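Dear colleague,

Thank you for sharing your sequence with our group. We've completed the structure prediction you requested, and as agreed, I am returning the results in plain text so they can be pasted directly into your records. Please verify that the sequence below matches your submission; if there's any discrepancy, let me know and we will rerun it promptly.
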Amino acid sequence: MEMRRLAGGGPTISRVGLGMAALGRPAYITLGHAGDFPEGRDVGSMEMHAHRMLDHALAAGIHYFDAARSYGRAEQFLRGWIDSRGIKPEQIVVGSKWGYRYTGEWQVDGRVQEVKDHGLSMLQSQFSESAAILGPYLRLYQIHSAGPETRVLEDQRVLDELRRLRDGGLFVGVTATGPRQLDTIRKAIEIRFDGSALFSTVQATFNLLERSAEPGLREAHDAGLTVLVKEALANGRLTSKGTEARTEPLRKIANRLAAPIDAVALAFVAKQPWADVVLSGATKAQQLDSNLRALEVSLSADDLQALEPLRVPAREYWAERARLPWN
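Please find the predicted structure tokens below.
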């Protein structure tokens, strides 16, 4: 597994990371999520399932694991796995996020699953919770889905607190979401204290369908920040579970290359020179193995041209994403 160093003199992290959004709570918006847990979705069953996935990822060379306070019990599952396997802090890198409160109460019944709050008190309380669970394994702490609507990147009290955490040895980052990701990324790049960048990382959605953040991600990489890409498979829409008519160009290339559809979609993202880390949201070992085949896929200029029609306007993409059911 190729490795990259976290910006700001940080630890080395694997080129592919494992996201815990669909592993730490019973409901998520990934297509077909409900069918990925045959042993059940009670806390005990999901913890054992998560531990098996973490074992599989580590054996495959993945050393970066991405969690959040709103991912149900993802942080607890990670720490339980770490302790049960005797993993040392230098063996892995864990990133987590603050800014959403999990409200799903371990139910899949249509209730609101998470609530956003980018205030200072939320940062302080959620960091205390994350630090208590993850201890020395927590290396990167990110704003979860920063956006213009919360003005979090203009809140001086929040920025001062993040600087305090950074000065204490923690790496801090920002994740973007929505049709204005580009604005968020560019704003984050500009934020500096005493001449140095506040953020070490930016994380954003980028995939064959949604490419609006690309200029900002390239600029972030050129500015020395580490770029992490999330939702590279568009919550399952760029896998075999997606709508066949939409993904026909992708399917044709996958068939010609004798590669899984998801591997081709991920290879497109990994091919971007500014994409330092690509997150897999796999919930089953077979899915992760299929995702990792992206590292073996080589796309030609003709392939890239054939994939161009999959691009959709950002607002259309995010409107469709908002309609995906929690399952």
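Summary note from our side: The mean pLDDT is 97.

Kind regards,
the structure core
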